[in-house]
Design a protein that fits this description.
single chain; alpha/beta; Rossmann fold; five-stranded parallel beta sheet; 8 strands; binds adenosine monophosphate
Length: 209
């Protein structure tokens, strides 16, 4: 099964993707994660991408497309994959259309005011990658591995505003793009986490018949 998870930053794409891949047995491909790793390792791609990410802009299409094309050639992608945070522009979507036919596009809907609250409170464990919220992990310690939690640089308030504008201008048009292809499945991302996962899995099952 080849899937895309679409939605504004903070909609819960990454969290839901992690849960859904466990049921479907396909890899999760997060372009944001690949880019953050490249920055951490200061690879050529990482150095080129860094300023875009930190300002809340999108990394240029050619950089992201090269990463995705390479990743999709890995043997673990042979039976499908879940694209989390890709495509984010019409150009990326068109390029993907030339690579493979998707089975469904899951659109996780969350209003702007909820997003700002979620992202400004989001904390990530630098050691194990677990993502949580300040309202849950009040002591600043990762509930999974016990290491200190950190805030993603692009989750700071000024950058969050830029990311929302970027989403509205460049990524939101993809909803119509995939609706026209008959691939869109929309879910309410404000429901409790377990219910969102259940909705996604049930809509995917329905789709598969
Ligand atoms: P994410 O973890 O998906 O929120 O992505 C974090 C940041 O990485 C985004 O704000 C963009 O700067 C960059 N990024 C991730 N995926 C893409 C993409 N498909 N196209 C362009 N930039 C991306």
């Amino acid at each position: 099964m080849k899937l895309i998870f679409l939605g504004p930053p903070g909609a819960g794409k990454g969290t839901q993707a992690e849960r859904v891949i466990q049921s479907l047995g396909i890899p999760q491909i997060s372009t944001g994660e690949i880019l953050r790793r490249a920055i951490k390792e200061q690879t050529e791609t990482g150095r080129r991408a860094q300023s875009y990410i930190e300002s809340g802009a999108l990394v240029p299409d050619e950089i992201v497309l090269a990463l995705v094309e390479e990743r999709l050639q890995s043997p673990d992608c042979a039976n499908g994959y879940l694209l989390d945070g890709f495509p984010r522009t019409i150009k990326q979507a068109e390029a993907l259309d030339n690579i493979a036919r998707m089975d469904a596009v899951v659109n996780i809907q969350v209003p702007d005011e909820v997003i700002v609250e979620r992202l400004s409170g989001r904390r990530v464990c630098a050691a194990c990658g677990h993502t949580t919220h300040v309202s849950i992990a009040k002591d600043g310690i990762c509930p999974v591995c016990g290491k200190p939690l950190t805030q993603r640089k692009d989750d700071e308030a000024s950058t969050v505003r830029n990311r929302l504008t970027t989403y509205a201008q460049q990524t939101r048009p993809l909803i119509e793009y995939y609706e026209k292809q008959g691939l869109l499945l929309s879910v309410d991302g404000c429901l409790p986490m377990e219910e969102v996962t259940a909705q996604i899995l049930s809509k995917l099952r329905e789709r598969q018949g």
